[in-house]
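To: structure subgroup
Subject: Chain for Friday's discussion

All,

I'm putting the inputs and outputs inline so they're searchable in the archive.
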Amino acid sequence: MWIKRTELHFLVLLIVLLVLVLVIFVPLTQYAVRHVFWDEPVPKAVLVQNAGRVISVSLSGGFLARSLVETDQGFYALMDGISLARNEALTLEIREGRARFLCDSQHRCLRLMGDDQDR
């Protein structure tokens, strides 16, 4: 009799795990596949400006890594950490929807802080 109860408990546990997989894992997998294999189109740059040459990069630790890039033309606050070579030429891209990105010479771009992420 205890074997049948154990089998019943095991069956209930399997059903609960299956539901969790369907509710959590499947949507996450679909999201990942959509963004990795079917890239969303990157908004086109409307305006590209010279942002100057890198003088220094300051990183602040914490939950969100933030960078402050100082160039010979000004300061740029970034939400993510960044590594740039001193004297590297940077450009400022203003893309459709007025999102602003700081780009290095290899066209690796990071969004500037203060821009609304919803636009």
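Points worth raising on Friday:
The chain has one helix and six strands.
The CA atoms of residues 20 and 26 lie 9 Å apart.

D.
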